[in-house]
Amino acid sequence: MTLEVAISHRIGAFRLEAEFRVAGGVTALFGHSGAGKSTVVNAISGLLRPDSGRIVAGGEVLYDAAKGIDVPPHRRRVGYVFQDARLFPHMTVARNLSYGAWFGRSRGAGRDRDLIVDLLGIGPLLQRQPRTLSGGEKSRVALARAILAGPRLLLMDEPLAALDAARKAEILPYLERLRDDLHLPIIYVSHSVAEVTRLATSIVLLDGGRVVASGPAEAILADPAIAPTFGQREIGTILPATVAAQEEDGLTRLATPGGPVWVPGVPDRPGAAVRLRIMAQDVMIAQTRPEGISALNVLAAEVSDIRLGDGPGALVQLNVGGSPILSRITRRSAVALGLAPGKQVHAVLKAVSVARDSVGHSVPVEGPQGGKGTNTPGFPP
Amino acid sequence: MVDWLTADEWRAVALSLRVSLWAAVVGLPFGIFVAYALARWSFRGKALLNGIVHLPLILPPVVTGYLLLLTLGRTAPVGRFLDDWFGLVFAFRWTGAALAAGIMAFPLMVRAIRLAIEAVDPGLEDAARTLGAPGPVVFLTVTLPLILPGIVAGAILAFAKAMGEFGATITFVSNIPGQTQTIPSAIYSFLQVPGGDASALRLVAVSVTIAMAALLASEWLSKRIARRIGRA
């Protein structure tokens, strides 16, 4: 399914001019507060009518100002998970879930009810009233309710923003499972780089009502010209990897485009795809392959781009076996090492964190650290 | 029937109950519609509609009654039209008393329901729409259940107001025992004749009892509904 959005809308002094096109996967609509993210998703859902433009989902025109087409929200089949859950307070969880499924019953919505209930772990909540649920439980129920209405596209407007860190950590694995198991295209509004890096397959970057960049998540996150908009401390890239082997000392060997990377026990079978999140500040650059250091993960790399910041810092884009990663070093080091595009160097990864990727079947392995969660902490230097 | 009330007094009580019940029940759908329009829609003439709805609250009741007589009286054009085409006669009938009471009670009913509608998060209605519910279904399955306490409160308030209506009723439909003589008109009449004090007092007692019962019923119902819809 592809979604094409080209809309303009004016609210007071704010002017939104958004144009982008996404196909499947999780598309993060990223931007700071007031960038126009919510306006875009409201327009896609039909809750807001843009001044002009066109919205097409899966070949069906949902909105076309020029042709006077405006499909009402209840016929768009666009699911919407709101930040504040919006469960119906006068219905039990079970009836909340049935609500959307009932309207979509003719096209088989609600058929996978047991599966979804299981996937989101809300079985024990079905007879409860929404007001007795915790924030995290409400989010999961809202998610299940939206999915059970049988949408062709799911919008999520900062579904985790109202939750504390512990609740976020509780929900994120469920979102990853949804992405990997349901093949439902998702537009995910967020201003959290960590969430975006963990979930997004592509990114649309909004700033001041305009799309400033869009494309595959790996490329956008690793573009030294764009990365600083995510915030200096949040700059990080995604490196795709597959589980190669579980080794005897509890480490898992991962195969990446740039060579092997070892991390503490990832509980997935060999062959499973994972995504490595590598923060720019955790990548050191060495001219020669360093000897006698504790860091295990050293990848051969080629400098592909350098961007000097306003301050004493510099962002270096390194090509490791065809995949870009970023390193944040000082300007002084960049000069001292004589870094320039084309130069062969070594990237020393001080820390790597692992998130599960688009292969569905995660099975804990037997081993010293088997059965841990899918998100392992950063690897110590 | 009940020997502590005379036949005339009893007729006034029964008529008052009938008039007030009709005023509240028939007014309810209109009240809900107008309250919803005022709470949720923006349209030209909204301020005017709001003004007209509230007019009976501000105008002297006699004026409202007289205006009704001017429009719906036997010889007035609208009154004659309704009589000719629908056989509906309001002037000097109990139906007229119900209409007058309903109109006088309408603003109170609308206010109570409008407050309840404004307390419902429109986000819930939006959520229902994105789940596939067309507008009228959203109203019936989400908005209506959530505003039920407000509707009950509005209806009972309207009922109580109708029970006490006097000025507009007596102007529009006069004070005919058994036809249009409600409790207030009856009390008024009894006070005009020597020795009527006892009758008037008995009706006052009945009035107080009914008003109190209505208030208690309203409290109890609202609490019960609030619990059921998960608001308590």
UniProtKB/TrEMBL annotation, chain A:
Domain ABC transporter per the UniProt entry, residue ranges: 1-233
Organism per entry: Albidovulum denitrificans
Lineage per the UniProt record: Bacteria, Pseudomonadati, Pseudomonadota, Alphaproteobacteria, Rhodobacterales
Gene Ontology terms: cellular component: membrane
PANTHER family: ABC TRANSPORTER I FAMILY MEMBER 10
Keywords: ATP-binding, Cell inner membrane, Cell membrane, Membrane, Molybdenum, Nucleotide-binding, Translocase, Transport
GO molecular function: ABC-type transporter activity; ATP binding; ATP hydrolysis activity; molybdate ion transmembrane transporter activity
Signal sequence segment: none
All residue ranges annotated as the Mop domain in the record: 292-358
Sequence segments annotated as region (Disordered): 360-381
Domain of life: Bacteria
Official protein name in the record: Molybdate transport system ATP-binding protein
UniProtKB/TrEMBL annotation, chain B:
Location within or outside the cell: Cell inner membrane; Cell membrane
SUPFAM superfamilies reported for this sequence: MetI-like
Membrane topology: Multi-pass membrane protein
Signal sequence interval, chain numbering: none
PROSITE patterns hit by this protein: ABC_TM1 (PS50928)
Domain ABC transmembrane type-1: 13-216
Subcellular location, principal: membrane
Gene Ontology CC: one annotated term: plasma membrane
Membrane-crossing segments per the record: 20-39, 51-73, 85-106, 137-160, 200-221
Protein name: Molybdenum transport system permease
